[in-house]
Write a structure and sequence with these properties.
Elements lengths: L1 H50 L5 H20 L7
Helix pairs in contact: 1-2
Length: 83
């Protein structure tokens, strides 16, 4: 009789583990989608900064600082420069 009780407990544990995997997958997909969106946003900002032309040294230094900041954030997201 105790063997039947133990197998039922194992079945319940397996069912709970399977349910946890099913609920974790959409959360991971949402997190990955958010990372991808953030990376695309930063890449667009980087391209805009690179395309700006200015003769003002103050503006150039501000753009340079912004570019460094964006590239650091991209590096944190696993981005590398594509040449």
């Amino acid at each position: 009789m105790s063997k039947g009780w133990e197998s039922k407990s194992v079945e319940e544990q397996q069912a709970a583990a399977a349910q946890a995997e099913r609920t974790a997958a959409p959360a991971n997909a949402a997190g990955e989608a958010e990372r991808k969106r953030k990376r695309q946003e930063l890449e667009l900002q980087r391209e805009r900064i690179l395309s700006e032309r200015t003769s003002s040294p103050h503006r150039r230094s501000a753009l340079s600082a912004a570019l460094i900041d964006i590239e650091e954030k991209l590096a944190q997201l696993g981005w590398t420069i594509h040449l």
